[in-house]
Amino acid sequence: MAERLIQLTHRDFETDQEVRWCPGCGDYAILKSVRKVLAEVGTDPDSVVFVSGIGCAARFPYYVETYGIHSIHGRAPSLATGIKLANPDLDVWVVGGDGDFLAIGGNHLLHALRRNVDLNLLLFNNAIYGLTKGQVSPTSTPGTRSPSTPGGVFDTPVNATALALAAGGGFVARTADMLQDHLPEVLLRAHAHQGASLVEILQNCIVYNDNAFGDLARKSNRAEATVIVRHGEPMVFGAGRDKGLVYEPERGGFRITSDLSEASRHDETNPALAAALARVDDPALPKPLGIFYCAPRTDYTTALQEHVPYRPLTRDEFREVLHAGSWTA
Amino acid sequence: MTEHRLRSMTGRADPGPRTVVRFAGDSGDGIQLLGSEFSKGVALEHHDLLTLPDFPAEIRAPAGSTFGVSAFQIQFGGDGVLTPGDEADVLFAFNPAALKTNLHTLKPGGLIVAGEGAFTDRNLKRAGYAQNPLEDGSLGGYRLMRINMARLSAEAVAATGANKKQAGRAKNFWALGLCFWLFGGRRQPTIDWLEDKFAGAPEIVASNVAALNAGHAYGETMELDAGDAALGARGELHHGLFRTITGTDAMGLGLAAVAALSGLKITYCSYPITPASALLHFLASLKGRGIVTFQAEDEIAAATAAIGASYAGGLGVTTSSGPGIALKSEALGLAVAAELPLLAIDVQRAGPSTGMPTKPEQADLNLALYGRHGEAPLPVLAPATPSECFDIVIEAARIATDHMTPVMILSDAYIANAAEPWELPDVDGLPSMAPTFRTDPEGFEPFARDPETLARPWATPGTPGLAHRVGGIERASGSGNISYDPDNHQRMTDLRAEKVARVALDGLDHEIDSGAQRGDLLVVGWGSTYGAIEEAVTRLNLAGLAVGHLHLRQLSPLPPNLAAILARFAHVAVAELNSGQLVRLIRSEFLVDAQSINQVNGLPFKVSDLESALRDCLEAGERGRKLALRTVTGTAGTIG
User: Fold this and answer.
1) Which residues in chain A have their CB less than 8 angstroms from residue B424's CB?
2) d(Cα A41, Cα A10) in Å, to the nearest integer?
3) Which of A18, A101, B176, B200 could share a disulfide with A96, CB 3.0–4.6 Å?
4) H-only helix segments in A167-279
5) Any CB–CB contact under 8 A between B429 and chain A?
6) What is the ipTM of this complex?
């Protein structure tokens, strides 16, 4: 145990496996952030499990020096739920892409969130199917041309954070791969949250959907195109931090103000504000990032233990169960 | 070979006289409760018995309708009652619809006890009778007892001061009282049960007890007798502790036993589906003792959660019926690839698709053996009787954890719902299961193998120094790292197959269940057809024919001595409730010209049908004629 006293670094979480993502893929930045956060949290690597489904993002567990299981498409949240059922003490992270979490596995994400299983759910949203060579995903922007939609996709994309809030997610946040300060900040909070925490990480796919989140990717434009919200702080943005957002609860929306004293303060315990932030899609408004909602409630396995306390069955207890309703001939 | 043997593998003697009683009425008449209470009373009189409920999928079909009829059949008598009986000696028909839909189950000359109060114009019309069959002479071929059970019961209950609603609900207990008069049986255990069950509602106890006593008194006063039907042989169940259990109960108790014997946290993950849900209910009633139950959002989530549980050091169990097992197929592939222990239980029902959810069928054998993508072998076991579910579940858990493999169990709607007396095993005599978890980091490789079983180590998250990654991408032999190496894939495919094949070396012993050890005809069966085959073979043996019965409990890998057993007989017939799935396996594996006896009508085999089909097989064999496929159902005839 003496080794554990040594401060871990992100290098302690590197495996001997060669990382096989495309050069320039946003996944590298996320991997770096996650390793950094694991080191910072100081969590015992032997009590951490990374669970993934299928897709580029799903290769993640092979690259983190903890326990890991790479499962089947879409089912990582339910497999992770099973892990927590058997051993609630494990620190379980679930990694999936937009196809994994929002298409084939949409049902499992919904139920992991509403049950509030204590999982850190990292949704790598690059708005495209990468591993299967570039088809549109449920989060692709209308008009996206792809091999499966040569005329451009015409259906309405899923809003991951709005969906997570509607599903009863107790921790819902959005950040982006290139935000190397903000991403670990959000991950740390997600990890600290007891219950299901969903972090949507906007991520670039350099091969099939480059510039997917163009306004964010261009550093020059980022300050104008995004607003990072923090609990208790006024919602301020702009290169000169000279603009603020005013929340108008009566219409569930926002307006921009230059009078910073007027800017609303973010309250991450306010579900209506969280929903309004999640739903912003007006090009005139900055894209909200940050922890939209954090309202801890009893997590699933804790509640399960309270309601149906598991305890090992002894032979004597088993005999009692067996003999119930018996009769002697 | 282990010494593990299944208890029901015993020889058969000539059965004594037996009685088959069938109760049929509206879904709301309390038929199933009547049946189960009567079974209990019969068991307490030392009769062996086997029961089968026959209820519609509809929860509360319109009163008086033919599709709302619920029935319950029991056969009881001496020892060795193995089926619910081909035909009923006595039919209780609570209304015209029950008579209409169940009369064909009554043997010629059998006794009908008709609840004549329910034979109203409206009910007759609803059942499709132009005239009242109780009066038009159409039942001349039977003995008829017309009793206005509803009125007599209501009168008896009214005397307790109960309201009209309650008075109308007790007629099943009135009928139970009459049954105890007709067939023998004490009322007190039922009274005790009522007092316990409705401890907070003394008026319900009083009204049902009044009805029970009134029914009994009616039989006594009117000096009713059931004729020959009442002559069921008294059983010779030796002294011991018994419990009347269904296959569902036995399977649940088996899982509880695994929890107690292994210390593993049984993590039972399931999605509601008929007829498998009852097992979830049974285990949920244990309230966390040894078993965590999880009602997942769908079948796939249930399977993957179970895999996650096993990965984390519990024992994942997932259960469904055919349609749900189909959905779990991809997940089972992952369990095979990741080489994790898992129990997947298929309570088969008539398919495909929704099919007939409450009716048994054995048509998922191919699904269990082959229904996965890629080369994905796994052991498949099948209990032969309701009580055997207990042993099979324990055996499956042992194989899964010793060999690090998912194991499938094939039960069906018949085994799940049928009930029989079961002598409880000595709990102290049950061998401990000691699953081995890897803890030593020295030289650890997640896909290194035990030289004997080829099992990989079970290294669970939380174990210091063993952090590793597993998954569905092909794993390098030893390290488990991602590998696309062609030789490695061939090697791993071979190893996974060999690992499952080696289960046969310490799997279930198989010997002839009963009848001739060698001779003219071997009947091979599996699963719930055990009782019917056993009785048919016994009849043929009593007629001096050299017929043996072999019932397979392990369908994959097949028992190593199966070829030798097959070779001891001139002819082989395989009887199963599908279009011939095991027979094709036997034919292809052993190049034996096995004949097929099959039936796919949602019903168990009738003993008499099997007996005549087997006689045909023997005759055909003598004449050198080949029967490629044969079915016992009259409508389908002979093919080939």
Assistant:
1) 322-323, 326
2) 11
3) A101
4) 182-192, 214-217, 219-225, 271-279
5) no
6) 0.97
